[in-house]
Amino acid sequence: MITKQNIAFFILLLSSLTSFSQDTNIRDLAKQKFTLSGIITDANSNETLIGVNIIIPELKTGVTTNEYGFYSITLPQGIYAVQISYLGYQNIDESINLNQNIKNNFKLFSNETALKEVIIIENKTKTDIRKPEMSVNKLSISTIKRMPVVLGEVDVLKSILLLPGVTNAGEGASGFNVRGGGADQNLILLDEATIFNSSHVFGFFSVFNPDAIKDLKLYKGGIPARFGGRASSVLDIYQKDGSSKGFHVNGGIGLISSRILAEGPLVKDKGSFLIGGRSSYAHLFLKLSEEQKNNAAYFYDLNAKLSYKLNPKNNLYLSGYFGRDVFSLNKSFTNIYGNSTLNLRWNHLFSDKLFSNLSLIYSDYYYGLDLDFVGFKWDSGIKNYNIKYDFKNYISDTFKLNYGVNAIYYDFNPGTIKPSDANSGINFDQLDKKYAFEPALYINAEHEISDKISLSYGLRYSMFYRLGQSTVNIYENGNPVTFNPNLQIYEKATPTGTKFYDKNKVVESFNNLEPRFSFAYQINDDQSVKASYNRMIQYLQLISNTSSPTPLDVWTPSDNFIKPQIADQVALGYFKNFKDGMYSLEVETYYKKVKNRLDYIDGANLIANKAIEQVILNGQLRSYGLEVMLKKNEGKLNGWISYTLSKSEQQTPGRTAVETGINNGAWYNSVYDKLHNIAITSSYNLNEKWSFGANFSLQTGQPVTYPNGQYDYLGITVPSYGLRNKNRLPAYHHLDIAATLTPRKNADRNWKGEWVFSIYNLYNRKNAASINFRQNTDTGANEAVKTSIFGMVPAVSYNFKF
């Protein structure tokens, strides 16, 4: 619970940390230590760069830029060779005489640009074995754009499926699963704003326009304390700021969608804008068919960002995203859904050691149905309003602190039913709206104990308040689900009464401590071992009994019936660079356990359910596995091979000795269980004109429940099902290839273009999206019918920029 004492304590903590930084400055001067700090940007656009390495070789120390391109490092007085490296950019080596505090804003040139004024050293992307960061994958947009994908559309989410420990439910499935967790357990952030549904067209494409994306990082474990609210992973994505040097346009034209993005200066070298749009148009071809002319399935989205540098210590950013999907059948059924986000951010530099970011964030997910044939409209969704204030304190070259506070207010609309016209027989109905408030405080330290040992440790204190205005059911013994011992089934309990909570009255509250810890021990210059532990609390639940999220799924807050998920994960890893960084090996093993994971009673109806607590049971989930990733970082041919051996299981035991639970209380395969997962991706640069790429994926089939018998009832054949998730779909695999043609005449003109030719599923594998069982109407025999979405799909697209 938030009290005056808690607020006073945190204010005291912040002031003491700031004072500590100031005291450290005084001590540093006494020891003749000085600070090198600044911003690192792209030389051609002034775009800030995230995660740039600034290395001091003789001291075997270094630092990386934060999410806004800022770095700071404090060193003893002296002359140092500073090495700066970033993937896709030319490395530089510059000598600096550190005899006072120095601000140096480096500008990096891309590999395409000639650089004459600084010394070029070879660009390497080898694994960072010193940093106590593990279970983290970073992908550059240039790498993602070289990957062949379905229908020629570059896709951020499809690219992370090639990483170890990441799977999904198959072709056409939305979301992704990390280390055996559900898709709802992933926190997806776009410029710090939450994205609740990450897919377009029911999973065929992601909502992220690759032209607008600057940086992508996936945390599978060892998650920093500044993140919270989900049990499995964090996908942290930042949009580009836009060029403040000159006006540029780039885009692409594909078979079913096109995109365009424009960026340029508001005030040269001070302010910039970025605006990008993307839309599919395959539905236009349906108009050519008399049978399909009234049907439609398309999406569109918009990315926008404004950036302005007030002065050397203050920057403002305003960014937003808006996307919608439209699916319509003969104008009698229309489905519209999508995300909207808005974020206003203020960066402030208190000193060369203390950086802050204040964000005001709005996020909205909307789902709507218009059913003209039955005469009603359905609206549902979730909104949140988030304020967060984060600080990064570069206390010394071996010790850094991150700390901050955030508070999120949620507005849930489970469903609104409205008549579609005055003649409709449907009455207006509003399922009780739900409200919640989630504040949190955190602090995290990055600490280099010695040349060989580095630590990252922190603590997050999260609170959650389920708020009125709503009516809550009351049940006998507090159990909304009862067990029928005669039929051996679970049934809905009948409420014995109700209780109404006024607006903002607390229905239920929770608070939890979430410790985080990571450790790295450097064996030598080329290899290290790392370990991590983190606890994550998830207060929101996705009400869904499908293997992947659908637009109709409803989010709901924890309350007196639905408890928050509590996830604990430990991981151990070995990391090695070979041949001076040409090859890298990453091996990790992990164990994760999640308490209060929901499952559903047999026959549960989740749509428009006013008492969802009557069909859910509390259980637990555990997953464990081994991940191996071998990367080739340099040369004309590069890429990686990843393999994951894993197990994901759920258990929902009976609450008493009489109850059976799910599957008699035994552990059973979760729908996310994939024993084997192999992914190979590669790119080959033949010359300046031609480059090639290929992906291969192989996954164990998804767990499903098949019928194991049947019986007749009044002449109707009724299937009988066995234990939950005991069966599997066939193995899933496909090979994709791509070739990119870049005309040589590009070098001599402002307009630059490229042709991308791709083939998805080269050998035409008919992967099973589902298998349904039915009785043949002609023969009367039972039969299994496989549904496949894609065979071989060739595609061509044209990308341009000027």
Automatic annotation (TrEMBL):
Residues 380-702 form the Outer membrane protein beta-barrel domain. Residues 155-232 form the TonB-dependent receptor plug domain. One of its GO terms (cellular component) is cell outer membrane. GO terms for molecular function: isocitrate dehydrogenase (NADP+) activity; metal ion binding. It comes from the Bacteria. It is a multi-pass membrane protein. It is found in: Cell outer membrane. Its EC number is 1.1.1.42. It is an enzyme of class 1 (oxidoreductase). InterPro entries: Beta-barrel_TonB_sf, CarboxyPept-like_regulatory, Isocitrate_DH_NADP_mono, OMP_b-brl_3, Plug_dom, Plug_dom_sf, TonB-dep_rcpt-like. Its cofactor is Mg(2+). The keyword Protein transport does not apply. It catalyses: D-threo-isocitrate + NADP(+) = 2-oxoglutarate + CO2 + NADPH. Residues 1-21 form the signal peptide. GO terms for biological process: glyoxylate cycle; tricarboxylic acid cycle. Keywords: Cell outer membrane, Glyoxylate bypass, Magnesium, Membrane, Metal-binding, NADP, Oxidoreductase, Receptor, Signal, Transmembrane, Transmembrane beta strand, Transport, Tricarboxylic acid cycle. Belongs to the monomeric-type IDH family. PANTHER family: ISOCITRATE DEHYDROGENASE (NADP(+)), ISOCITRATE DEHYDROGENASE [NADP]. This is isocitrate dehydrogenase (NADP(+)).
